[in-house]
Amino acid sequence: MVPPLLLANLFFGIYFNLSVWYKLTDRTYYGTWMTIGGAMITIVLNYLLIPVYGFHGSAVVTLVVYILMVITSYALSKKYYPIPYQLTRGTFYIVITVVVVFTTNTISLESQWLATAFHMLLLFLFILVVWRLEKVQLPLKTS
Q: How many CB atoms sit inside 10 A of residue 55's CB?
């Protein structure tokens, strides 16, 4: 239940950052409508999914609603206040993170030491990918 909620909060943060466009263009009513729409979808999907899946259903609903709100806000921002976001890079990082979390949650290792080593390996590979893609240059200290 924790991974979908963490990812949902990431998308809420993205939505919060995207909300700048309707504030700058004095179209705050779009924010109101997106919030009302998100609340209505949340209520309906919670009503449908909580009896079947319990709290897990509610976590997934939260994730779905925030993703829909991000997509809606982004689409409207392209029309009224276009900002050149790096969508491919951001989407890649979100997808690779979801893949890593899914992998760590589905592969069950008997030994705690082996599981820790596997998780550290995945973390190292993720850092390596980010390092290579961002071409990070470490400043050299000279004293």
A: 10
**Could you please report the per-residue DSSP string of 58-81?**
HHHHHHHHHHHHHHHHHHHHHHHS
Per-residue pLDDT tens digits for 69-102: 999 999 999 999 998 888 898 899 999 999 998 8
Cα–Cα separations (whole angstroms), residue 97 to 17, 90, 122: 20, 11, 10
Q: Rounded CA gap, 42 and 56, in Å?
A: 14
- Quick one: what percent of the chain has pLDDT higher than 90? 71
Helix (H, G, I), strand (E, B) or coil at 94: helix
If one counts every other C-beta atom within 10 angstroms of the C-beta of residue 119, the result is 15
